[in-house]
Fold:
Amino acid sequence: MVDGALRGSRQGPRLRRAPERAGLVLLGIVGAEALVGAALLQGWLPAAGLLHAGICALLLPLLRRLDPPPAGWPGAALRVTAAALPALGPLAALAGLLALAFGPPRLGLTFGPALDNASGSAPLPDDPMESRLAAIAAPTLAGAPPLPAGLLLEALGDVLRWGTPPQKARALDLLAYGGRRGGDALLHLALLDPDPALRARAEAARPAAERRLIDRAAALHEAARVADPRHRRALARHLDAAAFSGLLDPARAAQFRVEASGLWQGIVELAPDDAEAQSALGRDLLVLGDLPAARAALEAALARGVATPGVLGWLAECLFRLRDFAALEALISRWRPVLEAEQAEPGVLAPAWRLWLEAGQ
Amino acid sequence: MSRLVAGAWFGPVLAVLLVFALGLVVGAPVPAGLIGLVVAASLLAGAPAALVVARNGAVLGPLSLALPAAAALGAAGAWLLAGPQANVMIAASLAAAGFAALWTAGGAASARLAWPMPVAALVALCLVLVLRRDAAGVLIAGGLGAAVLGLCLAMPAALTPRRMQGGLRPAGLGLLLAGAVLAGPMSGVAALEQVLALVVALPGLGVLMATPSMAPFRLGVALLLVQALVTFMALLMPGAAVALGLLPAEALENFRWALLGAGFLPVFCALAAALLPRGKGVLALGAFAVLAAGLPLLLGPIGLLAAPILGILLAMLLLLGGTEHAAGA
Structure:
């Protein structure tokens, strides 16, 4: 509810750079609720009730103007305080103030996770996740040559998907985000984890990853000023990767995607046979909502022999959203052998492919 | 899950005792009925929220729903109990919402308890007590301490906002859990004796909360030893509650049966926690609620002992049934 209010609105230029203002807003709430508390202690109940109702009524539009939602510890304190304020009034404000004063928890007990499937059970001696973590950690500790990056990321990905929360936390600690290909994808995976502690840990690492993506884009922009198509392609690839990494804030991701689609469009105009550019352009346009243009680009990529499951999936999604089911069935019957292999794999689209293949029989 | 199930008994019992003790220390005793009502209201709103938080980590949605619900229940209960006294109603609603915040934060899977937070809660509590030394002040102080702790525990989970999804089933389970906790005392048979007797269960529940990853055999042995020792000691000196003025002398017989029954409670909690992920927790908790409310009415004081034992037997049957099914499969 409050989260929705904090995320919802695009208005409010005066508070556009709000993250650093979360603390100030919280202090304002504390000041106002202190008056409510004083009135309560004095026994002036109607005055306290009216004042509290007024603060709550003012707070909602104020929070809606915080766009983007405030990040970091002050943001979390503001969110929780705002969620609790209508019921707890001055008590919530005091709790918010104390949380702001003490900062994020550093020392102390770690409460274990509450769900059994995600939690609590001690690792078995032959737990494959433990052996993966041990294998990753051992060479690092011994100073031996590091594991190959691909193997390392695969093992860490396994732990982040299937491990217990303590194992996931150790995996995140082991994962040095900077410069490791695939590290951003793992960070994104950790950001979606149900365990709040792991998400908080990943969230702490996210600004650095975001900054790195933006800096790399700026460097590639500089390089692309030279009229060399290789630099433009590198920039377009990076913008695409950054936009789809899930680590940028939505507005910046959309900006990167628009820019990437422009670059891919330019490449396609120069070289219409460039299948990579066609498929990337199709994906960008699909996400941006230009469905007819996305369909044309993806069909062009397919015609040039890029029948990867990804391109087939994007085209199928595009046709589905265009409600052109005849073309979708034709696509499935044309690429049935590829899709039959794909539906057996544990991919995201496998269930959808299975459904469509069964329907087509 | 064992932390959540055990915490559903552990937290409220501790809260009742602390607020009661606080009232005695300050010299403004809070009526036992009012404390029980505030804690019951907070549990009815907080337990569903805690399970929703544990389900997918979203903390803001459950908080913003549970706290007003707890406040409304607290105020309504105070009205029913003490009539339309605004002072008492506000205190009860604030305290219920504060405790509900603490129970909800308990569901935040990996919240960290930093050392300044309990100190801050204590300071805040003392501040209110200095400013206002009456029953309402005691209730507000208790609620404030719980709110400070709870909200500070919930904040790490709010660092990355998360949308609340699929909360109906966990919320239903939470209501059932709250029902199982409250059914016994709310049945009206020896309510005070039952709540006081739950002190005997606290060490076992503490073991359960502190060692969620202990192997079942070790956990069983630990619970058996701890509970046998504590219940034996409690049975040796049941007169202490009478001597302290907490119970009338004629309630001693009921209290003995309640002590025996409470000794078995941690074992039921361990079994219910094992059943919840298997989808059979609904049956175990529901049956326990019915037994805890019904047997004392039907059998008298013996029902206070029979309810947890029958609950344990049923939970064991459900667990064994699941094991055989799995082995057969």
Observations:
- The beta strands of chain A are 109-110.
- Chain A has 18 helices and one strand.
- Chain A touches chain B through 64 residues (CB under 8 Å).
- Residues 1-18, 107-125, 139-143 of chain A have pLDDT under 50 and may be disordered.
